[in-house]
Specification:
The protein is mostly beta strands. Helices cover 0% and strands 58% of the residues. Strands 4, 6, 7, 8 and 10 form a 5-stranded antiparallel beta sheet that branches. Strands 3-11-5-9 form a 4-stranded antiparallel beta sheet, with no helix packed on it. Strands 1-2 form a two-stranded antiparallel sheet. It is elongated.
């Protein structure tokens, strides 16, 4: 018997990767400027202090399964606005995974810090491009279809933050 495959009740499924199901999004367009005000901590962010950006539907194969949700945002635009001479501003993004109509994030992470420094004596406007990659963990309660939602918030001294070119890969552990 080949132990690399397991019969699921309806089909033979490969177990080599350690995942029983993998689903990937194409390029997703985000929901515009982020207005969320969540400051990163051990307390879960909520839908009231983060801004919805993209959604992705996923149907788990097994109730109680551990699901990894990889979120890659290829383009995070930070606008620091006008910065006075010989000064700087800094900030970062927070990203949360929400499921269905849950008001609290299932998992959340903080992006890398971005700093804009004006070393001249006159005012200048700064826009910084960055990216975000994080893996969020979720335990599937059942085998029904669920809507996974990626939310964001700014954390720092920024004029606005915007997500562009978001991709999601969902992997269910076998």
């Amino acid at each position: 018997m080949n132990s690399e495959f397991v019969y699921s009740g309806s089909a033979w499924e490969s177990q080599i990767s350690g995942y029983s199901n993998v689903k990937a999004s194409g390029r997703l367009d985000a929901g515009g400027d982020i207005a969320g005000t969540y400051s990163y901590s051990t307390t879960a962010p909520t839908t009231s202090n983060m801004t919805s950006q993209v959604t992705f539907d996923y149907t788990p194969r097994k109730a109680g399964a551990t699901v990894e949700v990889d979120v890659f945002i290829a383009d995070v635009t930070f606008s620091f606005g006008t910065i006075g001479g010989n000064s700087h501003r800094s900030g970062q993004i927070n990203v949360g995974l929400f499921v269905d109509s849950d008001a609290n994030a299932t998992d959340w992470a903080r992006g890398p810090a971005q700093i804009a420094t004006n070393e001249s004596n006159s005012n200048a406007t700064f826009i910084v491009q960055s990216f975000f990659r994080g893996t969020f963990i979720w335990t599937a309660p059942d085998t029904s279809q669920h809507t996974l939602k990626v939310y964001g918030s700014e954390d720092g001294d920024m004029q606005f933050v915007r997500f562009n070119d978001v991709r999601i890969v969902v992997r269910e552990l076998a």
